[in-house]
Each structure stands twice: as structure tokens, then as C-alpha cells.
Amino acid sequence: MKKLIVFSSVFLFALTSVYAQSDSKAIQLGVKGGVNLSKLSGDDFDDVDSRTSFNVGLVAEIPISERISFQPEVFYSGQGFDILERDQDNIFDTDQNFEYQLDYIQVPLLLKAYLIKGLSVEAGPQFGFKIHEEFDTQPNSDGGDFEIDEDDSYVKDFDTSLALGTSYKFDSGFFLSARYTMGLTSIFKDDTFFEDVDGKNEVWQFGAGFMF
User: Domain 2-211, what fold?
Assistant: First the structure.
């Protein structure tokens, strides 16, 4: 994990020697949204499937130099995972899946480096604040929702991740993005039954947005 963080930092700073340029010297504000494919990673979560949800929020870009920008964001992120029920032959029955929903307000603080005009890579820490937790036995229809009270929750209210991504911004301000976020610590509370369970948030995000 430490090697990955160090490598990402070195990679971004090395890009400052590459000829690249931000498309604006002014601070830009924008909106973004897209699809989430989320699950838990770790030794204790090999059999879970991804939950498909969405993200939507605000983004800013603050130029530091011709090549580097600081990009803070704040957005809603639907996360969690699916549990697929197996039949007697140990084959997944996709009509009987259960979804554990963990919804966050995510605040990534990213360093953004331009490779060529419009095309950039980004990396940095992301801080998540849990706002909702629910177990859904009928994720493809209405009903089956069981909201989990905070007093009964085994999941921490705060989560820290590492975000790595790329984006392409057109001259009009419209942009496309792809990002991977990897939890740095287990989401489970230390003073509960799950304190020794290894489960970290893992999310792929694909989306679009517009900078004003």
C-alpha cells in the first residue's frame, strides 16, 4: 500500500517535466456525475459482487502552474456491495441478490497533471462521510429496504481512500472522466464483532461533467 502511494506521488510530480499545459489560468467551477461500480475488497470479501449506483456533485480546478492544478471536489457517492445467493449446485442465481448500501459524501483533494492539452491524470486522498446505510433484499424493485440505525451500525462514519484517475476536457468545458478509489483502512468499527474483518471500499467511477 505504501509503495503504491509513493509511486503515485512520484509519477505525478515526474509529469511536471513533460510538455503539457492547463487550458485555463483562471479558477474553474463545475458539476459532474456518473456511474459507480463499488464493492468491498479484502481477504474476507472474495465472493461479493459490485453494486451499481451513481455519483453527482461539484468540482473546482485551481491552476498552480501551466502543468499542474489542484482539484477539490464534493459529491454524493452510492457505494456498498451485492451478495448473490447460490443454489444447491453452487451457481449464482442473479434473481436472488441482496444489496448492502453505503452512501457517502466524498471529498477528494486531487493533484492534477496535464499530459497534453485537455488530457490529464489525477491522484490524491479522498475523505468519505457516511450519510446512509441500508440492507436491500429487493434491489431491482420497490420494497425490501431495511435502514440501519447508527446505534446498530458496524460501519465507521468516516473513511479514507486513495483516488487515481484520468480525464479529458474539451474546449467547450465538457469533460469525460474515469477514476479508481481504493480504501486505505477497514470500514468496520474497532469495538464491534467485525473489528478484525478486512473490508475496504473499492470503487470504479465513470462519468462526465462541465466546467464553467
Answer: Porin (2.40.160)
